[in-house]
């Protein structure tokens, strides 16, 4: 039976014709060309593998893609993968809307209680997250400039997320004598969950970015600088110059 040129051809179909179940190399290359960072690529390849197991030997259709999206969690990532593998079949499927709800942030007393409940070697991570605005992965992989009390992220190798330098308080200096403790993002999340159960105050690592933004706003710091510390730097040259983020103007 000959191939129908009107049917969409995907990387997965090409891989099957080559006698392989999954062409991870081709898929990874396409993702890198899109400027995605390594962590996002790893997530998308995982979704790709799950989809391959889901379809088995069935022909891929829009209905099958929708069945897949309904069956598995993390619909946004799964749909993003479908739009790379099967752009024609998934073009009319919309990304789910994000439901933004106001965050209930811990007050200073709750933060202190949680901090006191953490193992001593990881308290510096709590302080740095709450006072830098960095993402968890950025902080755990950052370089420390003690001369300028500066934190320099180095974890983003893609073009979809950005990070800027941040700083740490003088109180953190003695705690950083051995550098930032080695722990994975998942390990830190587990540690915070365990500490939350211990002290009765629910705090996860990412929440400390919001705490940072709140404290900066209450201190009267201009929003564009708070955005920069949180990695939300303007894309246009004009906006960057107007904000003075790179020119040093007030």
The CATH superfamily of the largest domain is: Intergrase catalytic core
Report the biggest beta sheet as strand number plus sense, adding barrel if it closes.
Answer: 3 strands, antiparallel
Per CATH, the architecture of the largest domain is Orthogonal Bundle
Number of strands: 3
Structural class: mainly alpha
| Cα separation of the termini | 69 Å
Poorly predicted ranges: 1-9, 18-22, 156-160, 235-250
The CATH class of the largest domain: Mainly Alpha
The helix fraction, in percent, is 40-55%
CATH topology of the largest domain: hpI Integrase, Chain A
What sort of overall outline do the alpha carbons produce when their principal axes are compared?
elongated
Radius of gyration computed on alpha carbons = 22 Å
Overall tally of structural domains: 2
The fraction of residues in strands falls at: under 5%
Mean pLDDT: 79
Order of helices and strands: HHHHHHHHHEEEHHHH
- Tally of individual helices: 13
Name the strands of the widest sheet in spatial order.
1-2-3
Describe the structure.
The chain is mainly alpha-helical and 250 residues long. It folds into two domains: 11-90; 108-243, hpI Integrase, Chain A (Orthogonal Bundle), CATH 1.10.443.10. 50% of the residues lie in helices and 3% in strands. The longest helix is centred in the first third of the chain and has 18 residues, at 38-55.
